[in-house]
Amino acid sequence: MSSQPTGGDDGTSDSQWEAMFRSMFGADADEALRQMREQGLDPQALARSAGLGDDPRALNGILAQVQRMLAASGDDPVNSDVAHDVARQVAAAEGDPTVSGAQAAAVRDALSVADLWLDAATDMPPAGGPRQAWSRSEWVEATLSSWGDLAEPIAASVTDALATVLGDQMPSTDDLSLPGLPVGALNGSFGDPQQMMRRMGSAVFGMQVGQASGTLSREVFGATDVGLPLLDHAATVLLPTNVEAFAEGLDAPLDEVRMFLAVRECAHARLFTHVPWLRAHLLALVDEYARGITIDLGALEERVRDIDLSDTGALQNAMSGHIFRSDATDAQKATLLRLETTLALVEGWVDEVSATATLPHLPHAVPLREMLRRRRAAGGPAEQTFASLVGLELRPRRSRDAATLWQRITAEGGTDARDAVWGHPDLLPDTQDLDDPAGYRERQAATRAEEADLDAALAEILNGATSGDGDGGMPTPPEDDEPGSTRS
Q1: Residues of the signal sequence (predicted)?
Q2: What integer pLDDT is reported at residue 149 of this predicted model?
Q3: pLDDT, position 322
């Protein structure tokens, strides 16, 4: 970095960067920047790849994270500190106004009325917990840890693969030191080139998770509308800024849009709260699927062969998408099918129950339902990013089929029969039921008959084993003092 102010390509003067680095690293800022770039840690490229622009004043938090990352001893696959800072920056990039008192009151009222309407549509009781209005940043704070957990299995595989491919290209850092860090912070295990690549991979993956989470915070309406249970406690939430942005240009008034979204949020919350196995079941399927994904080392090596490690954006691209092996095992395909079916059943149940609850009250319930269906089918940039991170699309492709199935079950057996299906994961419909909703009832009856026959056969075997004298019907040996008894 030159000691004389010069103009950057983007109009940012080097003197601004110099002043910022001196505020962090002191008089040795020039040497710190040089050594960081030699190790592939260019802060300006890091910020640009995260979509934060080139204003050095917006990068103080990121640079502090880089400094802590170099000194940290942890080896988590996703750097949660970097993810947090990037997510907060991205969430606020297009504005993140504080929720006003009037907005919070309107949200609480809508969520309260939504629960009253749902009482007539399902026997599942309200979720309980607080009714809240969140800003985008508050949504990030409440859900980011869940996104990190979802991405962690893939992050571990990708960073290990990156360390294998690029580790030999990294210089040893046994003798490297950076001002502002403890003596020896870069020696030992951090001096291992592969270990350093894992640290870099963790930071870049943290940036990706943060960027995707921050982008999602500008798209979601509540805490549950992505289909996965992101909260580990009961609560119902709406984001007024996003709800109002969605309502702009629609024929339906804001109050009606807010009510429709509130009903969907409360329906999701009831399901996740009162089906105790569902949250763990979904997250376990995501984890099982992600851990089964393998990395194509040849494809990754091809992508990073001529990479400039100071170009963090190129490193991000190399670590996401088109590096997953396509030859999934039969077990992994079965897991993915179960996961997609369960996500579709969740979305279809919420869609059907919400429609039942809103049709008597909202004039625009039908077009709003169709609009939400199309919006979920189209997805958005954040969902595409998570697809590249986790190798999994969040959109259930068969939610319409699932809604049709739930409607059929309700028509034939009532709401009790529909909601009773959630009593155990073994009772959930499968892809055959989504293909043929009309035959679901007959297949369930046949299954129950087979189970009854099996129970009867087992009972007959057990009864036969305990009938007769003594064990297994064998005669009881005579006591020693009985006539005819003998002693050994």
Answers
A1: none
A2: 86
A3: 58
The pair of three-digit structure tokens given for residue 478, joined into one six-digit string:
């005579």
The dihedral of CA 17, 23, 25, 31: what is its sign? positive
Residue 153, exposed/middle/buried by CB under 10 A (0-12, 13-18, 19+)?
A: buried
Residue 291 near residue 153, CB atoms below 8 Å: yes
Q: Counting Cβ atoms within 10 Å, is residue 272 exposed (0-12), middle (13-18) or buried (19+)?
A: buried
φ, ψ of residue 369 to 5 degrees: the values are: -60, -45
**DSSP assignment of 333-381:** HHHHHHHHHHHHHHHHHHHHHHHHHHTTT-TTHHHHHHHHHHHHHH--H
* 8-state DSSP, 275: S
Cβ 324 vs Cβ 295: under 8 Å: yes
Taking residues 228-257, what's their average pLDDT?
A: 94
Q: Both tokens of residue 91?
A: 């969430």
Residue 436, CA atoms < 13 Å, CB-side half-sphere = 7
Per-residue confidence (pLDDT) for residue 150, from 0 to 100? 84
Please give the helix or strand (H or E) that residue 456 lies within, else none.
Answer: helix 440-466
Q: Tell me the Ramachandran region of residue 40: left when phi exceeds 0, alpha when psi lies from -120 to 50, beta otherwise.
A: left
CA atoms within 13 A on the CB side of 377: 12
Residue 3 has pLDDT above 50, yes or no: no
Higher-scoring residue by pLDDT: 273, 179: 273
Long-range contacts of 18-21 (CB under 8 A, 24+ apart): 20/56, 20/57, 20/59, 20/60, 20/63, 21/63
Q: What are the DSSP calls for 375-429, one per residue?
A: HHHH--HHHHHHHHHHS---S-TTHHHHHHHHHHHHHHHHHHHHHHGGG-GGGS-
Answer yes or no: is pLDDT of 373 > 50. yes
Judge contact between 1 and 28, C-beta under 8 A.
Answer: no
d(CA 348, CA 151): 25
Mean of pLDDT values over 53-75:
52
